[in-house]
From TrEMBL:
GO terms for molecular function: DNA-binding transcription factor activity; sequence-specific DNA binding. This is LysR family transcriptional regulator, glycine cleavage system transcriptional activator. It comes from the Bacteria. Belongs to the LysR transcriptional regulatory family. GO terms for biological process: DNA-templated transcription. Keywords: DNA-binding, Transcription, Transcription regulation. It holds the Pfam family HTH_1. The keyword Transit peptide does not apply.
Protein backbone atom coordinates (compact mmCIF):
# COMPACT_ATOMS: atom_id res chain seq x y z
CA UNK A 1 0.00 0.00 0.00
CA UNK A 2 1.40 3.38 -1.05
CA UNK A 3 1.71 6.19 1.46
CA UNK A 4 0.93 9.63 0.09
CA UNK A 5 1.80 12.87 1.90
CA UNK A 6 -0.63 15.81 1.66
CA UNK A 7 -0.57 16.63 -2.06
CA UNK A 8 -1.35 20.33 -1.64
CA UNK A 9 1.54 20.61 0.80
CA UNK A 10 3.83 18.99 -1.79
CA UNK A 11 2.88 21.59 -4.38
CA UNK A 12 3.58 24.39 -1.91
CA UNK A 13 6.85 22.78 -0.83
CA UNK A 14 8.04 22.55 -4.45
CA UNK A 15 7.40 26.25 -5.05
CA UNK A 16 9.00 27.34 -1.76
CA UNK A 17 12.03 25.11 -2.32
CA UNK A 18 12.50 26.12 -5.95
CA UNK A 19 12.22 29.82 -5.14
CA UNK A 20 13.99 29.49 -1.76
CA UNK A 21 11.45 31.87 -0.31
CA UNK A 22 8.10 31.41 1.44
CA UNK A 23 7.05 34.91 0.34
CA UNK A 24 7.88 34.28 -3.31
CA UNK A 25 6.01 30.96 -3.19
CA UNK A 26 2.99 32.69 -1.68
CA UNK A 27 3.00 35.26 -4.51
CA UNK A 28 3.32 32.57 -7.17
CA UNK A 29 0.50 30.46 -5.73
CA UNK A 30 -1.74 33.41 -4.77
CA UNK A 31 -1.92 32.43 -1.10
CA UNK A 32 -0.65 34.05 2.07
CA UNK A 33 2.80 33.72 3.56
CA UNK A 34 1.17 32.21 6.64
CA UNK A 35 -0.53 29.53 4.56
CA UNK A 36 2.80 28.53 3.02
CA UNK A 37 4.47 28.36 6.42
CA UNK A 38 1.62 26.29 7.86
CA UNK A 39 1.63 23.78 4.99
CA UNK A 40 5.42 23.38 5.14
CA UNK A 41 5.26 22.79 8.89
CA UNK A 42 2.51 20.20 8.47
CA UNK A 43 4.53 18.42 5.75
CA UNK A 44 7.64 18.35 7.94
CA UNK A 45 5.62 16.93 10.83
CA UNK A 46 4.05 14.31 8.56
CA UNK A 47 7.46 13.27 7.20
CA UNK A 48 9.23 13.55 10.52
CA UNK A 49 12.16 15.45 8.95
CA UNK A 50 13.25 19.07 8.66
CA UNK A 51 13.03 20.28 5.06
CA UNK A 52 14.15 23.86 5.68
CA UNK A 53 16.69 25.47 7.97
CA UNK A 54 15.30 28.65 9.50
CA UNK A 55 17.81 31.32 10.55
CA UNK A 56 17.07 34.93 11.38
CA UNK A 57 13.77 35.02 9.56
CA UNK A 58 15.26 33.42 6.42
CA UNK A 59 14.72 29.90 5.12
CA UNK A 60 17.15 27.62 3.33
CA UNK A 61 16.64 24.09 2.08
CA UNK A 62 18.26 21.44 4.24
CA UNK A 63 20.25 18.62 2.64
CA UNK A 64 17.24 16.37 3.16
CA UNK A 65 15.04 19.02 1.58
CA UNK A 66 17.23 19.18 -1.53
CA UNK A 67 17.05 15.41 -2.03
CA UNK A 68 13.30 15.42 -1.50
CA UNK A 69 12.80 18.35 -3.90
CA UNK A 70 14.36 16.45 -6.81
CA UNK A 71 12.01 13.50 -6.31
CA UNK A 72 8.95 15.71 -5.80
CA UNK A 73 9.68 17.68 -8.99
CA UNK A 74 10.04 14.45 -10.95
CA UNK A 75 6.68 13.27 -9.64
CA UNK A 76 4.89 16.54 -10.40
CA UNK A 77 6.40 16.61 -13.90
CA UNK A 78 5.07 13.12 -14.55
CA UNK A 79 1.59 14.17 -13.45
CA UNK A 80 1.73 17.31 -15.62
CA UNK A 81 2.89 15.38 -18.70
CA UNK A 82 0.28 12.66 -18.25
CA UNK A 83 -2.48 15.25 -17.82
CA UNK A 84 -1.38 17.20 -20.89
CA UNK A 85 -1.39 14.08 -23.06
CA UNK A 86 -4.81 13.05 -21.74
CA UNK A 87 -6.44 16.43 -22.34
CA UNK A 88 -4.84 17.15 -25.72
CA UNK A 89 -4.39 13.82 -27.50
CA UNK A 90 -5.07 15.13 -31.00
CA UNK A 91 -3.46 18.55 -30.76
CA UNK A 92 0.02 19.50 -31.92
CA UNK A 93 2.76 18.40 -29.54
CA UNK A 94 3.97 21.53 -27.79
CA UNK A 95 7.70 21.69 -27.05
CA UNK A 96 8.92 24.40 -24.69
CA UNK A 97 12.59 25.34 -25.14
CA UNK A 98 14.24 27.72 -22.68
CA UNK A 99 17.44 29.20 -24.12
CA UNK A 100 19.87 31.95 -23.23
CA UNK A 101 19.04 35.09 -25.28
CA UNK A 102 22.36 35.26 -27.15
CA UNK A 103 22.24 31.62 -28.20
CA UNK A 104 18.62 31.91 -29.30
CA UNK A 105 19.20 35.08 -31.34
CA UNK A 106 22.46 34.19 -33.05
CA UNK A 107 22.48 30.39 -33.38
CA UNK A 108 19.12 28.78 -32.73
CA UNK A 109 16.71 31.07 -34.61
CA UNK A 110 18.60 31.01 -37.93
CA UNK A 111 18.36 27.20 -37.91
CA UNK A 112 14.86 26.59 -36.54
CA UNK A 113 13.31 26.36 -40.01
CA UNK A 114 15.16 23.07 -40.46
CA UNK A 115 13.52 21.60 -37.38
CA UNK A 116 10.07 22.92 -38.28
CA UNK A 117 10.36 21.41 -41.77
CA UNK A 118 11.37 18.04 -40.31
CA UNK A 119 8.73 18.06 -37.54
CA UNK A 120 5.68 20.05 -38.73
CA UNK A 121 3.47 18.52 -36.02
CA UNK A 122 5.51 20.10 -33.21
CA UNK A 123 4.38 23.45 -31.86
CA UNK A 124 7.57 25.12 -30.64
CA UNK A 125 7.47 27.55 -27.73
CA UNK A 126 10.80 29.40 -27.37
CA UNK A 127 11.51 31.25 -24.11
CA UNK A 128 14.73 33.14 -23.36
CA UNK A 129 16.36 33.58 -19.98
CA UNK A 130 19.81 33.84 -18.40
CA UNK A 131 18.58 32.44 -15.08
CA UNK A 132 19.76 29.14 -13.68
CA UNK A 133 17.24 26.44 -14.55
CA UNK A 134 16.55 25.81 -10.85
CA UNK A 135 15.19 29.39 -10.61
CA UNK A 136 12.95 29.45 -13.67
CA UNK A 137 9.35 30.46 -13.09
CA UNK A 138 7.84 28.18 -15.72
CA UNK A 139 8.43 24.52 -16.67
CA UNK A 140 10.33 23.56 -19.83
CA UNK A 141 10.96 20.47 -21.92
CA UNK A 142 14.51 21.42 -22.91
CA UNK A 143 16.82 24.14 -21.65
CA UNK A 144 19.99 25.30 -23.37
CA UNK A 145 22.71 26.51 -21.03
CA UNK A 146 26.49 26.75 -20.91
CA UNK A 147 27.87 23.93 -18.83
CA UNK A 148 28.42 21.49 -17.39
CA UNK A 149 26.36 22.70 -14.46
CA UNK A 150 24.79 21.44 -11.27
CA UNK A 151 21.36 20.37 -12.50
CA UNK A 152 19.84 17.81 -10.11
CA UNK A 153 16.90 15.90 -11.53
CA UNK A 154 17.95 16.60 -15.12
CA UNK A 155 19.90 14.90 -17.87
CA UNK A 156 22.38 17.10 -19.76
CA UNK A 157 24.75 16.67 -22.68
CA UNK A 158 27.20 19.12 -24.33
CA UNK A 159 26.45 19.57 -28.02
CA UNK A 160 28.26 22.75 -29.12
CA UNK A 161 31.77 23.84 -28.21
CA UNK A 162 32.41 27.54 -27.80
CA UNK A 163 35.53 29.68 -27.96
CA UNK A 164 36.18 33.39 -27.65
CA UNK A 165 37.91 35.80 -30.02
CA UNK A 166 37.83 39.60 -30.36
CA UNK A 167 35.12 40.78 -32.74
CA UNK A 168 34.31 44.21 -34.15
CA UNK A 169 32.67 45.82 -37.14
CA UNK A 170 34.74 46.07 -40.35
CA UNK A 171 34.18 49.84 -40.38
CA UNK A 172 35.71 50.21 -36.92
CA UNK A 173 38.72 48.18 -38.00
CA UNK A 174 39.25 50.43 -41.00
CA UNK A 175 39.35 53.51 -38.77
CA UNK A 176 41.71 51.97 -36.22
CA UNK A 177 43.48 48.78 -37.39
CA UNK A 178 44.36 46.04 -34.92
CA UNK A 179 47.54 44.21 -35.85
CA UNK A 180 48.40 42.90 -32.38
CA UNK A 181 46.71 42.57 -28.98
CA UNK A 182 48.47 45.76 -27.82
CA UNK A 183 46.54 47.73 -30.45
CA UNK A 184 43.35 47.13 -28.45
CA UNK A 185 44.54 49.96 -26.18
CA UNK A 186 43.22 52.37 -28.83
CA UNK A 187 39.74 50.88 -28.71
CA UNK A 188 36.67 50.68 -26.49
CA UNK A 189 36.27 47.22 -25.01
CA UNK A 190 32.70 45.97 -24.57
CA UNK A 191 31.85 43.99 -21.43
CA UNK A 192 28.81 41.94 -20.43
CA UNK A 193 27.79 41.34 -16.82
CA UNK A 194 27.11 37.70 -17.67
CA UNK A 195 30.78 37.21 -18.69
CA UNK A 196 32.63 39.59 -16.37
CA UNK A 197 36.08 37.91 -16.48
CA UNK A 198 36.20 37.08 -20.19
CA UNK A 199 38.36 40.01 -21.33
CA UNK A 200 40.87 39.65 -18.50
CA UNK A 201 41.28 35.96 -19.28
CA UNK A 202 41.86 36.63 -22.97
CA UNK A 203 44.24 39.57 -22.42
CA UNK A 204 46.31 37.48 -20.04
CA UNK A 205 46.66 34.68 -22.58
CA UNK A 206 47.45 37.28 -25.27
CA UNK A 207 50.40 38.53 -23.20
CA UNK A 208 48.96 41.95 -22.33
CA UNK A 209 47.30 41.40 -18.91
CA UNK A 210 47.73 45.05 -17.88
CA UNK A 211 46.35 46.58 -21.09
CA UNK A 212 44.35 49.77 -20.53
CA UNK A 213 41.74 50.33 -23.26
CA UNK A 214 40.76 53.78 -24.45
CA UNK A 215 37.42 53.24 -22.69
CA UNK A 216 34.94 50.56 -21.73
CA UNK A 217 31.21 50.01 -22.10
CA UNK A 218 29.26 47.59 -19.90
CA UNK A 219 25.98 45.82 -20.66
CA UNK A 220 23.77 43.63 -18.50
CA UNK A 221 23.30 41.09 -21.31
CA UNK A 222 25.89 39.71 -23.67
CA UNK A 223 23.49 39.97 -26.60
CA UNK A 224 23.54 43.76 -26.20
CA UNK A 225 27.34 43.84 -26.15
CA UNK A 226 27.39 41.85 -29.38
CA UNK A 227 24.88 44.21 -31.01
CA UNK A 228 27.01 47.17 -29.87
CA UNK A 229 30.05 45.65 -31.60
CA UNK A 230 28.05 45.27 -34.82
CA UNK A 231 27.10 48.94 -34.55
CA UNK A 232 30.76 49.96 -34.30
CA UNK A 233 30.77 50.98 -30.64
CA UNK A 234 33.83 48.91 -29.75
CA UNK A 235 35.44 45.48 -29.63
CA UNK A 236 33.70 42.57 -27.94
CA UNK A 237 35.15 39.26 -26.91
CA UNK A 238 32.74 37.27 -28.95
CA UNK A 239 31.42 33.73 -28.95
CA UNK A 240 32.36 31.43 -31.78
CA UNK A 241 30.85 29.72 -33.65
CA UNK A 242 27.69 31.67 -32.76
CA UNK A 243 28.99 34.83 -34.42
CA UNK A 244 29.92 33.10 -37.68
CA UNK A 245 26.64 34.03 -39.35
CA UNK A 246 27.23 37.72 -38.57
CA UNK A 247 30.79 37.43 -39.91
CA UNK A 248 29.43 35.87 -43.11
CA UNK A 249 26.99 38.80 -43.45
CA UNK A 250 29.84 41.28 -43.08
CA UNK A 251 28.59 42.77 -39.82
CA UNK A 252 31.51 41.47 -37.77
CA UNK A 253 35.12 40.52 -38.36
CA UNK A 254 37.89 38.89 -36.33
CA UNK A 255 40.85 41.29 -36.19
CA UNK A 256 43.14 38.84 -34.34
CA UNK A 257 43.38 35.13 -35.16
CA UNK A 258 44.79 34.20 -31.74
CA UNK A 259 44.77 33.40 -28.95
CA UNK A 260 41.67 31.26 -29.21
CA UNK A 261 40.19 30.66 -25.76
CA UNK A 262 37.94 27.60 -25.31
CA UNK A 263 35.14 28.22 -22.80
CA UNK A 264 32.21 26.23 -21.47
CA UNK A 265 30.22 24.31 -24.06
CA UNK A 266 26.51 24.65 -24.69
CA UNK A 267 24.45 21.79 -23.28
CA UNK A 268 20.90 20.65 -23.74
CA UNK A 269 19.25 20.00 -20.39
CA UNK A 270 16.04 18.01 -20.00
CA UNK A 271 14.09 16.92 -16.92
CA UNK A 272 14.86 13.28 -16.21
CA UNK A 273 11.16 12.48 -16.56
CA UNK A 274 11.01 13.97 -20.08
CA UNK A 275 14.30 12.90 -21.63
CA UNK A 276 12.78 9.76 -23.22
CA UNK A 277 9.88 11.66 -24.76
CA UNK A 278 10.16 11.19 -28.57
CA UNK A 279 9.78 14.91 -29.31
CA UNK A 280 12.36 15.91 -26.70
CA UNK A 281 14.75 13.26 -28.02
CA UNK A 282 14.22 14.47 -31.59
CA UNK A 283 15.01 18.08 -30.72
CA UNK A 284 18.14 17.12 -28.76
CA UNK A 285 19.33 14.95 -31.64
CA UNK A 286 18.66 17.80 -34.06
CA UNK A 287 20.79 20.17 -31.94
CA UNK A 288 23.64 17.68 -31.96
CA UNK A 289 23.37 17.20 -35.73
CA UNK A 290 23.41 20.96 -36.42
CA UNK A 291 26.47 21.42 -34.21
CA UNK A 292 28.44 18.51 -35.61
CA UNK A 293 31.85 19.65 -36.86
CA UNK A 294 31.71 23.08 -35.20
CA UNK A 295 34.66 22.46 -32.90
CA UNK A 296 37.28 24.71 -31.37
CA UNK A 297 39.97 25.29 -34.01
CA UNK A 298 43.56 24.34 -33.19
CA UNK A 299 45.72 27.02 -31.58
CA UNK A 300 47.82 29.01 -34.00
Amino acid sequence: MNTYPPLNALRIFEAAARLESFSAAANELFITHGAVSKQIKQLEEWLGVKLFDRTGGRVKLSDTGWRYLIQVQDGLDLIANATSQLLQPDRLRRLTVNSTPTFARHWLLPRLTQFRDAYPDVELHLVTSDRDISRLDAPFDIAIRRGPGDWPGHIAKPFLEEWEQPLCSPALLERAPVASPADLARHTLLYADTRPTAWQRWLTLAGVPDLKPASTLHFDRFSLALEAAMDGLGVVLGPMPMAQDEIARGRLTTPLPSPIVPVRAYCWVAPRTAVDDPTVSAFCHWLETCAAGLNVPPAT
